[in-house]
Structure of Tripartite tricarboxylate transporter TctA:
Amino acid sequence: MEILAQLGDGFAVALTWENLLLALLGCFLGTIMGALPGLGPSNGVAILIPLAFTLGLGATPSLILLTSVYYGAMYGGRISSILLNIPGDEPAMMTCLDGHPMAKKGMAGEALSLSGIASFVGAFLATWGLILLAPQLVKIALLFGPAEYFALFALAFMTLGGVSSTNQAKSAFAAALGLGLAMIGVDTQTGVPRFTFGEVHLYDGLDFLVAIVGLFALSEVFIFLEERHGNSSADNSKLKVKRLTPPLSMIKACTPTMLRTSFLGFIAGVLPGAGASLGSFISYSMEKRLVDKEGTFGTGDPRGVAAPEAGNNAAAGGALVPMLALGVPGSGTTAVLLAVLLSLNITPGPLLFTQNPDVVWGLIAALFIANFMLLAMNIPMVGLFTRLLMVPPKILMPIVAMVSFVGIYGISGSSFDLMVMIGFGIMGWILRKLDVPLVPIILGTLLGNTMENNLRRAITIDNGDWFTLIDSPLAIGLWAIAIIGFILPLIVGRRVKAKMRRDEEGAISD
């Protein structure tokens, strides 16, 4: 009953005209970001961070806007997957397998609407999972001391590559690079400048919002400039959407699939580093094994659309659980949201639910509202969103660059930060060409100082004894999970990634 009372308080926060309009704007912009191939949730949220700060929004309104963008982008990723066979982002990759064959059969509208309904079911159930699970995690997290927190951050880094990672060594390199960047600035304990090279602007360290916008948004612009995509990916002949609503029998047949894969996706999202890609892949694979007796998956089976969509949206909600309860992001996009919270002087973790209950419960209530908005918006406005695929990148990318520059300058008023952002943009472009993941860099930049402070505190309390890091059952358990989480992808990850790639190539060749 206490949870329902807190949720009621959250709705009182979320149900203001300002917050409702921000949720609507976030859902609309997020769907656009998700629909455009290559952008995806992480880039979408990163691009719009400057807008939230330029508008001078408070903590709750900023989070409502950006999490609505996050959920909207998860919905929008299916549009280009189904119509063009081009995944809007990695989690939408599995939707291509049955979504595009449905479109080729003249059922594009039904596929789009069904995926919207599946997305709603996954996200709605995941939000209830967040409500029930996060407060329980908070109770466990209150037992943590400095050694346990250091082990928890180590777990986040070691599992960040996830089963779907391209290369554990590259993930480890990216995490080390992020931790190195976090060391820049004045040492909080000794007052000695580190890695500042005499540059006064670096004494306060790197602004992680600048790093995020540079790494995600600007690097995307540089990729497009290099590949010279002047024209849009779509043309009128490919964008035919006829009937918009799926028949009731189709929804009924897909309902058990949606419920099963929502649960699977949520579990995948809660695991640090797994995220929506794994949620989508596991949901599709498990459902195929369970119900595909006639071998119809991959040929336009509606259940093959419902499974990955419910799974990846449930994973998106699940990833918020460790971010809010422990301060450890469960995915790339929640790492970006974590940066927003930190920049607003709000520390995610166990005390967030007691110190800032209005922020947490207002955000959770807004997730429910955003889900209903997305369901109401996506089915009637499918035609509009499909037309956006015809916008040429030569128009879109300058807008992204302009929003990034104006927004960052509006936040800091410093031309030095613009130069740093360009530097991060170039670094992001190079790393993406080398297939090095960007999320561990962001996580290292965000958590590096906190991780270092907890390490120092733990060792100081125990008079320099390093064994204090494995001195409690909780710390030993976290280290064990971290080691398994690092080794398991080396064994299983290659097979999983190879299968994902085979499935994607098969879908695109069709």
